[in-house]
């Protein structure tokens, strides 16, 4: 039987060695640049090349506050996945935003993503948020936070997404543009709950996953277009005693 070990760390406990490992995990397992990435992002984003992150960027952009945190899971001693989260307050509510979630391709479909997100939550969290082009990340959040995605409150997202995101210390969250019929009634693109992040990662795998998901459920977040990501915001459900 595989030995799975989850470990959680506050931002000031995260070492450079941890970030080196996290950067390697991301760069080798997150995804590749899409067809139009170079013209939209820069020559470094050549189609088919892996999307990479440095440990410096992880430190500065993904752990920006004192109540940021990092969780990793090892399987038989090997780093199998990790998650970063940042927290901030809006109108007296604590927002826990998942800034990164990556699972090694050899360890997927084992529930590790939901396990990481469950490990990262705190009893004081009031709202959880994630932006991702992959349906699996949204589904993992809905499982970890006990809010089935097909019954998630779109009205809550519509009413609160803008104020939550604008208060974020994380630049890519704060600057993302809300898009879709949930936020713009005249939108006819097929988007429902999305953000324009200008992040042109290849969508072949996420679209395959989305087609598979739609075979078994009514997917509420709409279509996935190039340069866009889904956005999911959930109210916390308190742990039972």
Strand content of the residues, in percent?
A: 15-25%
H and E order: EHHHEEEHEHHHEEHE
* Principal-axes shape call: globular
- Count of alpha/pi helices: 8
Task: Summarize model confidence as the mean pLDDT.
Answer: 95
Total strand segments? 8
Major sheet: size, sense and barrel closure?
8 strands, mixed
Classify the helix fraction into a percent range: 25-40%
Roughly how many Å apart are the termini?
30 Å
Which descriptors would you attach to this protein?
241 residues, alpha+beta, eight-stranded mixed beta sheet, 8 helices, globular
Topology of this protein?
Elements lengths: L3 E7 L5 H14 L7 H5 L13 H8 L6 E7 L2 E13 L2 E11 L8 H9 L6 E6 L2 H10 L9 H13 L4 H5 L1 E3 L14 E3 L7 H11 L13 E8 L6
Parallel strand pairs: 4-5
Antiparallel strand pairs: 1-2, 2-3, 3-4, 5-8, 6-7, 7-8
What is shown here, in short?
The chain is α+β, with helices and mostly antiparallel strands and 241 residues long.
Characterization of this structure:
This protein has about 240 residues and is of the alpha+beta class. It is about 30% helix and about 25% strand. Strand 3 (about 80-90) and strand 4 form a beta hairpin. Helix 1 (about 15-30) packs across helix 3 (about 55-60) and helix 4 (about 110-120) crosses helix 5 (about 135-145). The radius of gyration is 17 Å and the shape is globular. It starts with a strand and ends in a 6-residue tail after the last strand.
């Amino acid at each position: 039987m595989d030995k799975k070990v989850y470990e959680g760390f506050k931002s000031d406990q995260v070492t450079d060695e941890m970030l080196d490992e996290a950067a390697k995990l991301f760069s080798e397992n997150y995804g590749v640049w899409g067809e139009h990435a170079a013209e939209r992002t820069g020559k470094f984003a050549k189609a088919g090349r892996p999307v990479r992150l440095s440990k410096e960027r992880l430190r500065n952009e993904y752990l920006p506050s004192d109540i940021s945190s990092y969780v990793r899971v090892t399987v038989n001693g090997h780093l199998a996945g990790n998650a970063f989260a940042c927290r901030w307050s809006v109108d007296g509510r604590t927002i826990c935003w998942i800034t990164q979630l990556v699972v090694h391709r050899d360890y997927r479909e084992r529930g590790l993503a939901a396990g990481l997100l469950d490990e990262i939550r705190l009893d004081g969290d009031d709202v959880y948020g994630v932006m991702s082009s992959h349906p699996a990340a949204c589904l993992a959040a809905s499982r970890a936070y006990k809010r089935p995605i097909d019954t998630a409150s779109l009205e809550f997202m519509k009413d609160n997404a803008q104020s939550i995101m604008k208060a974020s210390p994380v630049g890519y969250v704060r600057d993302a543009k809300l898009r879709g019929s949930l936020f713009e009634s005249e939108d006819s693109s097929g988007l429902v709950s999305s953000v324009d992040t200008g992040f042109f990662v290849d969508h072949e795998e996420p679209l395959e996953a989305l087609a598979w998901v739609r075979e078994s459920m009514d997917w509420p977040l709409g279509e996935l277009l190039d340069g866009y990501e889904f956005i999911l915001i959930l109210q916390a459900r308190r742990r039972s005693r």
